[in-house]
Design goal:
Number of helices: 4
Order of helices and strands: EHHEEHH
Radius of gyration: 26 Å
Helix content: 55-70%
Strand order of the largest sheet: 1-3-2
Strand content: 15-25%
Structural class: alpha+beta
């Protein structure tokens, strides 16, 4: 078991500090509050069982970006096809080859 600060946990898992704090408050992550130099510092206790759940719960930005790009490419391809049809119709109407 390791103890890491909220900030280092957020950086290592590519999450925002706010999201890590929400996970601590909801009980998804084990934490411990220690007073150092008059300040209360929250440490997250890293447990392998919980880490696998957290990693499965994190949606990868790369995967969502790739899906979004694929959808955008399909939409743009359809739009290009419609524009080509309109150009052909205009060419016929103006009798241009």
């Amino acid at each position: 078991m390791q103890k890491v600060t909220i900030k280092s946990y957020a950086i290592s898992h590519k999450l925002s500090i706010f999201n890590v704090m929400k996970m601590v408050k909801s009980g998804k992550l084990k934490s411990e509050v220690i007073e150092e130099n008059g300040k209360e510092i929250t440490y997250i206790i890293i447990d392998e069982g919980i880490e696998t759940e957290v990693k499965e719960g994190i949606v990868s930005a790369e995967n969502t970006a790739k899906k979004n790009l694929d959808e955008e490419i399909k939409l743009l391809s359809n739009e290009v096809g419609l524009l080509r049809m309109e150009i052909e119709a205009l060419k016929k109407r103006l009798d241009i080859k």
